[in-house]
């Protein structure tokens, strides 16, 4: 029921744009996914909601000459990130990767997670009563390589940044300091996440507070990501943030939480 609420609005307000020649942003209004690589060789990072598959296929036809991705990488296992993964894994016969610690949650073998008191007033947390509300028990999820390489992406690496979930990851490209951060960080306003989307007010960066596995661990992960000194932040929620504005907001955030 909760995911249906988000899917209904998302289906009306999807959009997309090219970030670089080899990075394409898919915006499902409440959540983002990314396509990384060339038309001949690219991967899909996260898959949005269950009904996001229709828009993803549309973009593939329009911008990728109807060529399917080589693989799917999941930053974590929440319903707005893995919604279409099962469909594409069966339809395209391509591998789906996640952190080894995230796989039990995606499969539904472990859904008991800690909750923080500060979530009680959060609107999205109330609407989404539990986190892993899409259990893909027949999805064949492979563990990401232990050496932090990413299949089919030679110049990217994955980074374990738990907190939002136990097996949450980010993707980082050193040569231009581009960081795909999942839900470890988001760009949003100071008002609630839902309101900030509906009102389209100015972006700022803040902790991702939607059902974190461990708030203290999440703060350590934010510090870890900040130490990468990213020039471009591509979140699962919110708009891209870059250069001086990103750097200043990251410093401001670090002062807030430490």
Describe the structure.
The chain has 258 residues and is α/β, with parallel strands linked by helices. The chain has helices at residues 2-10, 52-63, 79-82, 85-92, 103-107, 123-127, 193-199, 215-226, 243-257, and strands at residues 15-20, 23-27, 32-37, 42-45, 71-73, 96-98, 141-143, 149-150, 153-160, 169-173, 178-182, 185-188, 204-207, 232-235, 241-242. The chain has a single domain, classed as Metallo-beta-lactamase, Chain A. It is built from 9 helices and 15 strands. The strands form 3 sheets. The chain has a 7-stranded mixed sheet. Strands 8-9-10-11-14-15 form a 6-stranded mixed sheet. The relative contact order is 0.14.
CATH topology: Metallo-beta-lactamase, Chain A
Strand content: 15-25%
Oligomeric state, counting identical vs distinct chains: single chain
Distance between the termini: 37 Å
Structural class: alpha/beta
CATH superfamily: Ribonuclease Z/Hydroxyacylglutathione hydrolase-like
Main sheet: strands, sense, barrel:
7 strands, mixed
The count of strands amounts to 15
Helix content: 25-40%
Order of strands, widest sheet: 1-2-3-4-5-6-7
Average pLDDT metric: 81
Q: Enumerate how many helices there are, as a single number.
A: 9
CATH class descriptor name: Alpha Beta
Low-confidence stretches: 113-133, 189-204
Radius of gyration, whole Å: 17 Å
Instruction: Write down the overall geometry.
Output: globular
Query: Helix and strand string, N-terminal first?
Result: HEEEEHEHHEHHEEEEEEHEHEEH
What is the count of structural domains?
Answer: 1
CATH architecture: 4-Layer Sandwich
